[in-house]
Write a structure and sequence with these properties.
Layout lengths: L1 H15 L8 E11 L9 H7 L24 E13 L3 E14 L2 E8 L2 E26 L3 E22 L4 E10 L2 E10 L4 E11 L5 E2 L9 E2 L5 E11 L4
Antiparallel strand pairs: 1-2, 1-12, 2-3, 3-5, 4-5, 5-6, 6-7, 6-8, 8-9, 9-12, 10-11
Length: 247
């Protein structure tokens, strides 16, 4: 992982260095936000073979008279990060960021499943964490004197860590752990309102599309499982950006 990351970072430096010659204006920023449906439906092979769910966490939600169940919601994540970008020729933008995202709400509850003809309660818990470095290229258009709207797209180096833990009412356990990286597509729509000539409040809608290859379960509890870590989904951020020169 480290070798791939360093190679990726070196390529970014090589690409952005020539922008100094073109009189680029640089900026750095920090932001935070949330990520609905983090990890998608979190489906694995065992969800279907052991628990009769063909669509992951969504299919695990079941109710049955006489059993106390609790809804298992998709994971709502919180995200934070920092960015570095360069604007050159007034309208063109190169943007790089470092993001960390983790589950905050959802991903736990109780359901029922058919265990060889016997209905059993099943307690479920999912966790998801992600570290990614998106690099995008696009346009940044000023409106009036204090607003700038940017649209860019590119790829992210994304590393994910997904795990689940299930325990039936008879004590039987199933655990899964998956770690891997991918290069999801990234599309960003970003707006900035300038508080001063060099400081702007920012907001962004970010869309990721992509996943890892099929990964083998790293846990030895409950049999071998297989899954992809899905990075697809939206993120909504608020932050502040500092420009090196007046915009």
């Amino acid at each position: 992982m480290n070798c791939k990351f360093l190679t990726y970072f070196a390529a970014i430096v090589i690409i952005t260095f020539p922008l100094r010659v073109w009189g680029a204006n640089y900026a750095v920023g920090v932001y935070g936000g949330f990520a609905p449906s983090l990890g998608g439906d979190l489906n694995t092979a065992q969800h279907y073979s052991e628990f009769q769910s063909s669509n992951g966490i969504d299919g695990m939600n079941r109710e049955l008279d006489g059993y106390s169940t609790g809804r298992i919601d998709r994971i709502l994540g919180v995200t934070g990060g920092g960015l570095f970008k360069a604007i050159f020729h007034d309208y063109y933008q190169v943007r790089m960021a470092l993001n960390y995202t983790m589950g905050y709400f959802g991903g736990s509850g109780k359901t029922v499943f058919d265990d060889g003809g016997t209905t059993r309660l099943l307690e479920c818990e999912y966790t998801f964490r992600e570290l990614d470095v998106p690099v995008t290229f696009g346009i940044s258009i000023p409106f009036w004197k204090d607003i700038r709207i940017a649209f860019s797209c590119g790829l992210a180096y994304a590393y994910g860590d997904y795990s689940y833990s299930f325990e039936a009412d008879n004590g039987q356990q199933w655990k899964g752990s998956f770690k891997g990286w991918g290069l999801p597509l990234v599309i960003i729509l970003e707006g900035e309102y300038f508080i001063t000539d060099r400081v702007a409040a920012s907001t962004a809608i970010v869309y990721y599309k992509g996943s890892t290859k099929v990964l083998k379960d790293g846990s030895d509890t409950g049999g071998t499982d297989f899954a992809r870590i899905d990075f697809s989904g939206y993120r909504y951020n608020l932050g502040v950006t500092f420009y090196f020169r007046s915009i």
